[in-house]
Amino acid sequence: MKAQTIKKDDVRAYLEAVVAEELKRIESERWDESPAVSPAEWRMRWMTDRAEACALRLLAQRGHAADLMPEDMDVLREQGFRPAEMSLVLELLFALKERFWGAEPPVLSPSPEDVFGERTITEAGYRHLRSAAFEGRARALEQSDRRDIIHPGADPSTSAAQDTNTTQPAMSERPASPPRSDPDIVSIADRMSQKSRALRVKDKSFDKKAFERDKRQRDRVISQFIEATAKSKVTDLRQEDVAYYVNCLSRLPKTYNKSTADRALSFEQVMERGDELPDDLVGLSGSTENRNLTFVGAMLSYARSEGLRPAEDLDLTWFRTKDRTLKRAQRPAFTRDDIAAIFSHPTWRGRQSAARPHALGDEIVRDGLYWVPLIASYSGARREEIAGLELTDIVFDASVPHIIIRPNANRGLKNPQSERLLPLHSHLLELELRPYCEGLVERGETTLFPDLRPPAPTHAFRDMIHLRWSEVRKRQLGSDYSGKVFHSFRHYVSGYLQNETTIPQLVVKDLLGHLSGDITADRYRDPSHLGKLAEAVQQLPRVY
User: Fold this and answer.
1) Which residues contact 436 (CB under 8 A, 6 or more apart)?
2) What's the mean pLDDT in 472-480?
3) What is the Cα–Cα distance from 204 to 408, expressed in whole angstroms?
C-alpha cells in the first residue's frame, strides 16, 4: 500500500470483479445441479453455502491466522448453525487455507492482470487482493441465497427484472427518490444526539455534563471513522469499509489520542507511527474497539430509522471482541490490607507541608482528597456521587445523620436507582466532618468540596481528584496495583458486607443503589429503612 502499487480503489475494483465472476460461476453450477430429493438435502446445500461464506469471510478478515474461535461459534449458533454445520465451517476453513496458501505466488481468480493489466504488484498488494477475493466470493454466495424465489424456467444469466413476460420496468430504470434526511454521517450523529437529549432531558436523573462528555467522545469516534473510510455519507458505506476501519484500529498506538502530539497528526500519520512501534505498544484494547463499534452501530441504527441505508447490509458482529473476564474481576476489590496501606498515607496521618505531601508530619488538610476516599470506604458510593455533593445533601440534625444522593447542580446520577440515603459512619463524625461543613457554610460555600470544583464545564468534580488520588494509590500499593482503582472501594464495601456480616442482600443493594434483580422486589418494595442501612454501615471496620 505504501509503494502505491495497490490502492483502496484498486482493491474495491478487484472485489467487484470477483463478485461478478463468482455470481456467473454459481448460477452456472446451480443450473446444472440435480434437484434436491428432500427438504433435508436442500437445507444441507443451503447451509453448505452459508458455511463456505462464513469461512471465506473469516479468511478475508484474519488471513492465515483465521480459526473458528468460541466467540465465532456463539455468533453462528445465534444464526441457526448446528454443531455439525459449525464443523463444516472449520473443515472448509482449513481446505481453503491449504488451497490459497499452498502456491507462491498466490493463485487468484480473476487474475490481477485481467483487472489491472500489466502492473507490478508487491507481496503486500497480493495480500490485499487475496483478502478481497475471499470477501468477493463470500458476497456472491450471500447474494445467491437459495431461499430467494426464482421464476421457474428462467435463464440464470437473465435477471428477473429483464423477463420479457413482464411489463414492469427494471428496478435500475425507476427514478430514485432523493432521501428526505441528510445522509451525511456527521449530520446523522448530530440528529441522533439531539433526539437522545430531547428524550432524556425530562428525566430528573439526567446528567448534562456526562451527556456532553459522552457526545464529545462519540463525535471523535465518528470523525475517526469518516477519516479512516474516506466515506462521508452513510449511503456509500460497504462491509469492506467497516473491515478496513477495524484494521486501522489495530494499527494505532496504545497511547493514541492521549498526547497533544498525536492530536496534531492526521489519522494516517498516527497509523504510520504505530507501524514503527513494537507489537506490545500497538493496538487499542478490545473494550475500546467494542466501544467505537457501538458508537458506529448506533449511528447506523439511527440512520435506518430515518430510512437511510448503506450501499449494502453491514455486519459489525464479527469485529467485536468478547470479554470473558468475570465482571467482578474487571475491577477487583481492595483487601483489608490495601485499605490499611492506603489510609496510612500522610494525607490522613499528617504531612510535612504542601510541598512535601508524601512525607509524614503534623499537618492534616481536610479537603476533597481527605474526605472522598473516607466516605467511599464507609459507604461504597461512587467517586462522582461523593465529589459532586452539595452542602444541602448532608444532614446532621436527624436521628440518623446521613447523606442524600440525588441529582444536583454539580452532577446528575448514573440511573434512577442511584438516588438513595447513605448513613454516616461514626468514624466520619469523629473526624470532624460536621465542623468542616459548618466552616464552609460560614464562608458562603454551597459545594461540599470546593477544592474539587472543575475549571471548565467540560470537566467534572470527580476529575479534579484523579491525579492526587492516583499518586497516593501508587505510593501505598506499589506500581503493580493489579488493576485496582477508586471503584475498588465500592467492591470492598459490597464484598465485606456480603461475606463478613449477616446483613441481608437487599439492604446491601439498597446501600449501593443497585436493583435487586427481582421484579417484585424492585417494583413493589420500599427501600430499606435508614436504620437498617445504618446497621450495615456501622459494621464496616474502621480504616485506621
Assistant:
1) 366, 371
2) 87
3) 10
Average pLDDT over all residues of the chain? 83
DSSP assignments along 466-488, one per residue:
HHHHHHHHHHHH-S--TT--TTH
Cβ–Cβ under 8 Å, residues 217 and 193: no
> Residue 12: which of 293, 312, 246 has the closest Cα?
312
Query: Is the per-residue pLDDT at 331 higher than 80?
Result: no
- Which residue matches cell numbers 427518490? 177
Cell of 273: 507511527
Cell of residue 323, nine digits:
470479554
* Cα distance between residue 208 and residue 451, in whole Å: 21
Q: Please state at what angle helix 267-275 crosses helix 239-251, rounded to 10 degrees.
A: 50
> Do 375 and 364 contact (CB within 8 A), yes or no?
no
Which ranges of 79-207 would DSSP assign to H, the alpha helix?
Answer: 83-101, 112-116, 123-143, 185-200
List C-alpha distances in Å: 431 to 210, 518, 542. 32, 39, 12
Q: Closest Cα to residue 334, out of 485, 540, 502?
A: 485
Q: Cell 443497585 appears where?
A: 514
Going by C-beta distance under 8 Å and a sequence separation of 6 or more, which residues neighbour residue 361?
346, 350, 351, 352, 353
List the helix and strand counts (H, then E) for the chain: 24, 3
Residue 218 near residue 345 (C-beta atoms within 8 A): no
Residue with cell 489510609: 343
CA distances from 481 to 96, 324, 346, 382 (A): 46, 22, 19, 20
166 confidence band (pLDDT: 50, 70, 90): very low
| pLDDT above 70 coverage of the chain, percent | 85
Q: What pLDDT does residue 263 have?
A: 65
Read off the pLDDT band of 503 (50, 70, 90). Answer: very high
What is the rounded distance in angstroms from the CA atom of residue 274 to the CA atom of residue 282?
6
Does the pTM surpass 0.85? The reply is: no
Q: Are 341 and 476 in contact (CB under 8 A)?
A: yes
pLDDT digits (tens, 9 = 90+) for 183-225: 999 999 999 998 888 877 766 667 777 788 888 889 989 998 9
Read off the amino acid at residue 499: N
Model confidence at 277, in pLDDT bands (50, 70, 90)?
Answer: confident
Give the type of residue at 92. L
**All residues at 6 or more sequence positions from 275 whose CB lies less than 8 Å from its CB, including other chains:** 251, 282
Question: End-to-end alpha-carbon separation of the chain, Å?
Answer: 61
Tell me how far apart the 2 most distant CA atoms of the chain are, in Å.
98
